[in-house]
Design goal:
By secondary structure, this protein is α+β, with helices and mostly antiparallel strands. The chain has 2 helices and 5 strands, in the order βαββββα. Strand 3 and strand 4 form a beta hairpin.
Length: 92
């Protein structure tokens, strides 16, 4: 499991940077799903569906008063390390 908090509130810009970083490293972002029933509600909860090779996983994204927190439940050691490196170098 990977979890990291970013002190930013610009969700659109953050999603663009995260998606670009993933795609630059060979990941394929399938879609981004808004998990909230009411549009414009706060906190905002999103799920990003990602594929790399045969591996499919989801990235949980929550924006609340503390900023944006991402959570990636992944067990594959190689992918986990690659994702950690991407997230640690993500500049927001």
């Amino acid at each position: 499991m990977i979890t990291k908090n970013f002190r930013t509130y610009n969700l659109e810009e953050f999603l663009q940077k995260l998606k670009k970083s993933l795609e630059d490293n060979g990941f394929n972002v399938q879609q981004i799903i808004d998990m909230m029933e009411k549009k414009g509600s706060f906190p905002k909860v999103l799920t990003m569906e990602v594929i790399k090779g045969e591996q499919y996983f989801k990235i949980g994204i929550v924006m609340d008063k503390n900023g944006i927190t991402i959570t990636i439940p992944i067990k594959d050691k190689k992918l986990k390390q690659a994702l950690k490196n991407i997230i640690e170098t993500l500049s927001v």
